[in-house]
Amino acid sequence: MLTVDRASTIDAMPAAPSSERVATLPRVRVWVRRLSLPLLISAGLLLVASLLLPYWNITLHAPQYPQGLNIQVYAYKLTGDVFEVDGLNHYIGMMKLGDAAKLERAVSRVAIPLIALLAVVSFWVPGRWKWLAVTPLLIYPVVFILDLFAWLYYAGHSLDPTAALSSSISEFTPRLLGTGTIGQFRTEASFDLGFYLALLAAVIVLVVMLMGRKAGDEAA
Hints:
Blueprint: H1 6-12, H2 19-49, E1 56-62, E2 65-73, E3 78-80, H3 82-92, H4 102-121, H5 129-156, E4 178-182, E5 185-191, H6 193-219
Antiparallel strand pairs: 1-2, 1-5, 2-3, 4-5
Helix pairs in contact: 2-4, 2-6, 4-5, 5-6
């Protein structure tokens, strides 16, 4: 006849959560939910506000322009010394600045507010669909960097061979960040406040998602 060691069976059973932990879990979930919506709204507002500020800028220093020529790249427009830089680029056969990223600039005024709204709406979205709702905002800063680099590469590797000074310069990629040299020009490039607002928005959303996931894991 089989006998069961009751003591060993009890030892093998998983320990029940303490009453203190059980009492704490609902409070944790409540606080996470209370914080999530204000944080998501803040992230959405930061992303929309980033439209008003430049994301990236580059300054060209040349002998004929001792003060330098500066271009500010917004999500939807270019400002600064665009005409002068286009004039210099013409001599080496480089495309006009306004010809780059036309589609991206055209859709950004609508797409960015929609991405921000989607992140806020994710508060009411259940389960894994919540991650799908916030993914556009989470990846947006990375997409901007990759798109900008792609256009810089294309512009520097699609030079017009019939340009006046085409023989004096070979294909190149303008610096995305830091100091570089293009022929006799020195360039200084850096990300600007608009990009950092978008990046902060993505970080806030990621924190909210991880907080919610942690609270859910502890409740399991």
